[in-house]
Write a structure and sequence with these properties.
The complex is a heterodimer of chains A (486) and B (282). Chain A is α/β, with parallel strands linked by helices and 486 residues long. In chain A, 30% of the residues lie in helices and 18% in strands. Chain B has two domains: 194 residues, Rossmann fold (3-Layer(aba) Sandwich), CATH 3.40.50.1820; 56 residues, no CATH class. Helix content of chain B is 40%, strand content 17%. Chain B is built from twelve helices and eight strands. Chain A: Its EC number is 1.14.13.84.
């Protein structure tokens, strides 16, 4: 049986829950969230590796309309964030709107009935408006490494943690040195017999200003929510301050670099290891990491840093690109990141010509106002092109996008229309301006290869190249002039 | 310095050296007016606008002067104002522009806006004041005593007055002491401090015709918000907002300050005359 709704949202992470909550609060009569898993939470449901925590302070990495006085510490652990999201779904009565275990297979715009036809693992849905809220960190990136599939031990991605794999007294290889790896490595090294970290490129790591909230503080937040809000604003503006580093202003780039390199110097004893852990690109070009525990791990004799990528696997022997071999490895953990630059959902969304969004984005993803795409009517993309940040909270960005969608739906209703489509000229003008804004930023001028930049075009497609507040200024309000309505 | 390092221009005024910075047109072209920015007491483009200059220059052409000492013993408002005029005359040649002043720079900016009513299109006054009051005179008096005693406490006293409690709380005593050492005190600062004690531009303010944004700092001990409220009340086309910061807002909350400047540059009309702006929260 077909299920017909006005708005269909794909995904129940922060994006899906954020929009769902607003629709609910506005008494929207007909919407559904389809979720491929059996729980809400997106990346926070999927990432259960030891030591998983957020890199943005929790009083900001949460919805402005649902502040939480009970965060246990500055950077809450993953399970606490997941529980917060579950509470959001429950408290906003969203569970009745979520169809779990329902994966979008294809979504096709039908220009005859002017509706989206969404094939899922649970059957067909028909919707007037389609909103993808897949998130940047939804689908894991698996590297193509010779011999890896024939590896005899346990091998899994950090976002698909195998809880049955006992790592106690094992020889464990961790592939990657990004945001997940730096949280996993210190935890695994506590129990493993030996740990090898394959590092393709070194990361800048700065101190993590983490502290536990006392019962007194939490009680104050409950009794006086304005204090909690004050903290939120302080965190937001402290984050915004750091945008100037991404803008590549030397004085501030150098300050940040000194902080990171001093941190390395103070935490790692061996100068050779320090040398290997020193990046060869500008700070901020790749994601800036925060940890107090990652570097000291390499002071331990059973932890080895292989300063090259994993090249090939033969039986239980792993070879670095440097040629160094590591024998008798029991477990490989792939902390190799996510398919963020070319999001897999785009392969499943088709316009009335049968062309996929992925095909239209063959030179890199782009969208008008970072949310709508010409040739794809009645589609909103949450967390799509140019919505990432290197310096602040993505939940803030999501809230701006939710505002945009709510305003767009209201506008279309007021005009008594049913179909909107971004004008190609508006989209191109928007993207040209973004490219101008991106010039000279550390992402493009910092001498690194990162997932922020689409290698096919060399354009910065993932990140908003300005302050977070300016994302809300520019993309938090529906711009009627950029659309054809019918 | 930073982006502006290679934009520094060395010139002279009344036979004395005078430096200013001119960013040129922004990378992303637009119709925004150029902006002249004026630093405050003890400051320079580098120390007060090291954060703001490169960012404002991404939105519009920005020109910033570094005040120069004068040969005379007594510094007047007119001396500093004439230095700014000389740079404006050299760079903007009768064009319209926006003007931003911080602290004592706001006093000068207001004075200029009252005189060049046809040229100054928009005016931003950050932590400024119109008339020195007894509270400020007491602070300056204590400053003078410490200065005469050549006290080690002088720079720390300045820091204590300049920053909010929460900003100070976030630094160790060691860090605060280290940062305070960077403050430069010299004969020119002495002259500026004397000038600070005698400010009165009350009669000039009603002549200002520019769209004006008055920004007060809610935890300012040096120029408490009642001064900004006086400016808001005295200037016809003023609007008012506060930033939760001490007087040293250019260090404490520069990104938030930039947001308001950015909003003003892109669309001054969004600030309704006579309105108190409720700043949207994150």
């Amino acid at each position: 049986m077909n299920k017909e709704v006005d708005v269909l949202i794909v995904g129940s992470g922060f994006g899906g829950l954020g929009l769902g909550a607003k629709l609910k609060q506005n008494n929207h009569p007909s919407f559904v969230i389809i979720e491929r898993a059996n729980d809400v939470g997106g990346a926070w449901r999927d990432n259960t590796y030891p030591g998983v925590e957020c890199d943005v302070p929790s009083h900001l990495y949460s919805f402005s309309w649902k502040m939480n006085p009970n965060w246990s510490k500055t950077f809450a652990p993953g399970d606490e964030i997941l529980n917060y999201m579950r509470d959001c779904a429950k408290d906003e009565n969203l569970l009745e709107n979520i169809d779990f275990n329902t994966e979008m297979l294809t979504s096709t715009w039908n220009s005859k009935d002017k509706l989206w036809h969404i094939e899922t693992t649970q059957g067909l849905y028909i919707a007037r408006y389609l909103v993808t809220a897949a998130g940047h960190l939804a689908d894991e990136h698996l590297p193509n490494i010779e011999g890896l599939k024939d590896f005899k031990g346990d091998c899994f991605h950090s976002a698909r943690w195998n809880n049955d794999a006992d790592l106690t007294n094992k020889r464990v290889a961790i592939v990657g040195s990004g945001a997940s790896a730096i949280q996993i490595v210190p935890e695994i090294s506590k129990i493993a017999k030996e740990v090898v970290v394959f590092q393709r490129s070194a990361a800048y790591v700065v101190p993590r200003p983490d502290s536990i909230y006392t019962e007194q503080q939490k009680r104050l937040f409950k009794r006086m929510p304005s204090e909690m809000n004050k903290l939120r604003q302080d965190i937001f503006w402290a984050g915004e301050y750091n945008f100037i580093q991404r803008r590549n202003v030397p004085k501030f780039v150098n300050e940040a670099k000194k902080t990171a390199l001093d941190h390395l110097e103070s935490q790692v004893e061996d100068p050779d290891i320090r040398e290997k852990l020193t990046p060869d690109y500008e700070i901020g070009c790749k994601r800036l990491l925060i940890s107090n525990h990652y570097f000291p791990t390499f002071n331990q004799p059973h932890v080895c840093l292989e300063a090259s990528a994993l090249h090939k696997v033969e039986g239980n022997t792993l070879f670095g690109k440097s040629g160094v071999r590591y024998e008798d490895i029991d477990t490989i953990i792939l902390a190799t990141g996510f398919e963020a630059t070319q999001p897999p959902f785009a392969k499943r969304v088709f316009n009335d010509q049968g062309h996929s969004l992925d095909a239209q984005w063959d030179k890199g993803m782009q969208a008008y106002d970072a949310i709508t795409v010409h040739n794809f009517p009645n589609l909103f993309v949450i967390n799509g092109p140019n919505t990432g940040l290197g310096h602040n909270s993505v939940v803030y960005i999501i809230e701006a996008q939710v505002d945009y969608i709510m305003e767009a739906l209201e506008h279309i209703k007021i005009e008594n229309k049913t179909v909107f489509e971004a004008k190609k000229s508006s989209e191109e003008q928007f993207v040209t301006r973004l490219q101008q804004m991106s010039e000279g930023t550390v992402w493009l001028a910092g001498g690194c290869k990162s997932w922020y930049v689409d290698q096919r075009s060399g354009n910065l497609t993932l990140v908003w190249p300005d302050f977070a507040y300016s994302f809300r200024d520019n993309n938090g309000t529906f711009h009627r002039e950029g659309y054809d309505l019918s | 310095m930073n982006l502006s390092e290679n934009k520094k221009i060395e010139t002279t005024f009344n036979g004395l050296p005078l430096n200013y910075y001119d960013s040129g047109v922004p990378r992303v072209e637009n119709d925004n007016l150029p902006m002249v920015i004026i630093h405050g007491t003890t400051g320079s483009t580098d120390t007060h606008f090291g954060y703001l200059f490169p960012l404002i220059s991404s939105r519009c052409r920005v020109i910033s002067i570094d005040w120069s000492n004068i040969n005379e013993d007594k510094l007047t408002l007119s001396d500093l104002k004439e230095q700014v005029y000389s740079v404006i005359n050299m760079t903007l040649e009768g064009k319209k522009y926006n003007l931003l002043g911080y602290s004592l720079g706001a006093v000068i900016a207001a004075k200029i806006a009252s005189e060049r009513v046809n040229d100054v299109s928009g005016l931003i006054l950050v932590a400024g004041w119109q008339k020195t009051d007894e509270h400020q005179i007491l602070r300056n008096h204590i400053w003078n005593i410490l200065r005469k005693e050549n006290s080690e406490a002088l720079k720390l006293y300045m820091s204590f007055c300049a920053f909010s409690t929460s900003f100070i709380q976030n630094s160790s005593l060691e860090q605060t002491v280290e940062n305070a050492k960077k403050i430069e005190i010299n004969e020119f600062i002495d002259k500026q401090m004397k000038l600070n004690s005698t400010i009165d531009i009350t009669d000039d303010l009603p002549r200002i015709k520019a769209k004006t944004l008055v920004i007060g700092c809610s935890q300012d001990l040096m120029v408490p918000t009642h001064h900004s409220k006086q400016l808001f009340s005295s200037i016809d086309r003023a609007s008012y907002l506060e930033i939760p910061s001490g007087h040293g807002v250019v260090y404490e909350r520069p990104a938030e300050l930039f947001q308001h400047i950015d909003h003003f540059i892109s669309n001054p009309e969004r600030f309704t005359d006579g309105s108190v702006i409720n700043v949207r929260q994150a």
